[in-house]
Design goal:
The protein is of the alpha+beta class. It has 3 domains: 158 residues, no CATH class; 74 residues, SH3 type barrels (Roll), CATH 2.30.30; 82 residues, Alpha-Beta Plaits, CATH 3.30.70. 56% of the residues lie in helices and 18% in strands. The strands form 5 sheets. A 5-stranded antiparallel β-sheet has the order 10-9-8-7-11. A 3-stranded antiparallel β-sheet has the order 12-14-13, covered by helices on one side. Strands 1-2 form a two-stranded antiparallel sheet. The radius of gyration is 36 Å and the shape is elongated. The termini are far apart.
Amino acid sequence: MNKILFSIGEFNFTTDHLIGIGLVAVLGYWLFGLAANWLIPRLTRSKEVDPKSQSGVKRQISLLVFLICLLIIVAFLKADLILLHTEDYDLKISHLLQGLIIFQLARIIDWVISNLYIHDYYIKRDSEKKYPSDVKSVDEENKANRIVQYIVFVLAGLFLLNLFNSDYALFERTINGEKLSFRISNILISILIYLVAQWIVWIFIQLILYNVYKRRKVEVGAQYAINQLFKYVVYVIAFILVLDNLGLDITILLGGAAALLVGIGLGLQQTFNDFISGLVLLFERTVAVGDVLEVEGIVGIVKKIGLRASTIETRGNITVLVPNSKLVNDKVINWTHFDDKVRFELKIGVAYGTDTQKVKDILIDLANNNPYVITYPSPFVRFNNFGDSSLDFTLYFFSRNFIVIEDIKSDMRFELDKKFREAGITIPFPQREIWSRKVKE
């Protein structure tokens, strides 16, 4: 029997309402248990998910279920009161609950994609045998997580705009009889286009091209060039879509840009030269990321080839920005263009009368015992000359440690001095005898 328990104004709370609320509570408890105790454990069974992270998503699910139950109860009790009244829109309790549900659902979707797919992908990739060009993937994982998070919440924002009917026009204009309006949704959609472009770049490079590079053993420089070219293409397309979404006429813009670029090109010839040189480097690959270059006496590793300048990290861990045109047009020594080993030399002079074969044996033994000297091509010694004060020798050896080669040579000199002392071999220094004759007056 439907009995009235209490009344608030015109609203009568009956036993049917109490039973309905109880059923909703039981349903909510069952849904939470199903998600927290059955769905989440099965989804994370083969994944390496932090227990604290699992506890956090369970709290998010419980809050989502609670909000859904509240929405059902409000609809069941017909208690959808108006919280805010305007001329165009009435904000009701159900609208507020729906907004909170969308926001909470976005958080859960973000957690699922970030932890069950992106994090798991990088964990599996890092556990595999390292490919020589592979780098630490923590930064890529964090970047992918941020992109997913932004995309999910921008989509949630678009849903909320539609839900609250608040997609207001920021300004409106009439051009050639056509009414154009710029709304909040235009801004969010433009941001979404940019984020989706980043997501496409990540998927194509990290999921598709990575496996191709690994299977075909593509070197780091070629990987970087292909990745950069793909990024340029995707971002140019995204830029055009953003302009179109903002209501700009692309044809007029391109025509104006063509005329503008002529004037700009005259004033920024060097900048355009650097830009074209950057494209030449990416296509021609005479200089690639990871190469060891010597530019104007500066030796360093190429870390990045940008649109205008390339970044080189020197032996002293100093970053040097070199214009791309200098790498294309000037004389540049690329130590690792065709091979990753370079021949170095260590010069030494010994006193006259020293056993030359013994000197040769010590030098060869010195090179063979150094861990940074490769065994093939093998080191060798050249007897250069009978000097003014010494017998001059040169030890030639190959190494792949270009950046710290001066430290390696220093260690070899320390060891060589020790071996010469033990063998009684003298390293002479220049001496001169001066005879003076007194002339009679």
